[in-house]
Amino acid sequence: MALEWIVVAYAAGAEAMMLLLLTLPGSNPLRHGLLSVTKTLLKPFLSILPFCLLLLLDIFWKYETMPSCKTLNSCSPSENLRHQKSTVKSQRNALLIAAAVAFYWLLYSVTKLVDRVEQLQFQIKKSAKNE
Known about the structure:
4 helices; transmembrane helix; membrane; BAP29/BAP31; Endoplasmic reticulum transmembrane protein
C-alpha cells in the first residue's frame, strides 16, 4: 500500500506547485504556459479523487477490523504500540487524502479564474485596438 500513498503524495505536491506558480504575481509569460499545461493536466488529476476514496475506504476497513484491547492485560505492550502507530499512520494518511482533494479543488478553481481573467484581458486589448 505504500506505493499508493506515494502516488497521492506526489500528486498533491504537483497540484500544490502548480497552484503556487499560477498565483505568483508578475509572472505573466510563465503563467500563460503553465495555464495551458494545467488545463491539460486537470483531467488526468481527476483520477486522484476515486483513488483517494479507495484509500479512505482502506483506512476505514483497517479501523473497523483493528482488534481492541478491552482490559489492560489483554494486549501486550508491543501490540498496544503497533495499534498506536497504526492509528497515527491512518490519521496522517487521512490528512494526505484531504490535502490532495483540497489542492485539486483549489487548482481547478484557480485555473478557471486565471483563464477567465486572460480571456477578459484579451477582449479588452481587442476592443482597444478597434477603437
